[in-house]
Amino acid sequence: MTPNQLSPTLLIVQGFNQVGQKALGTIALKVELDDLYTDALFHVIDAKTSQIALLGWLWLHTSKAIASTLH
């Protein structure tokens, strides 16, 4: 991915340390989880994190990716 592939955004991502960081942009990517194929919109930030991507509970619930979230 290169910066010119990102769409502009005004989103501010707030971390657990309560510090806000402006997203560099958004990008729509195809996501494959086992036999589930779907598109997801990602907000890109420039930060050292322990995760490559975070999928929100709404996405997980809609995709039925984790059965325990359906209750």
Helical fraction: under 10%
What number of domains?
1
**How much β-strand is present in the residues?**
25-35%
Strand line-up in the sheet with most strands? 1-2
Pick out the low-confidence regions. Answer: none
> Largest sheet, described in full?
2 strands, antiparallel
Distance between the termini: 36 Å
Helix and strand sequence: EEEEH
Which secondary-structure class do the elements indicate? Answer: mainly beta
Please, what is the average pLDDT?
Answer: 80
Instruction: Report Rg.
Output: 14 Å
Label the overall shape: globular
Number of DSSP strand runs: 4
User: What is the number of helical segments per DSSP (H or I, 4+ residues)?
Assistant: 1
Structure description:
The chain is mainly β and 71 residues long. It has one domain. Helix content is 8%, strand content 34%. It contains one helix and four strands. It has one helix at residues 57-62, and strands at 12-14, 20-22, 25-33, 36-44. The longest helix is centred in the C-terminal third of the chain and has 6 residues, at 57-62. 0% of the residues are buried. The model has no long low-confidence stretch (mean pLDDT 80).
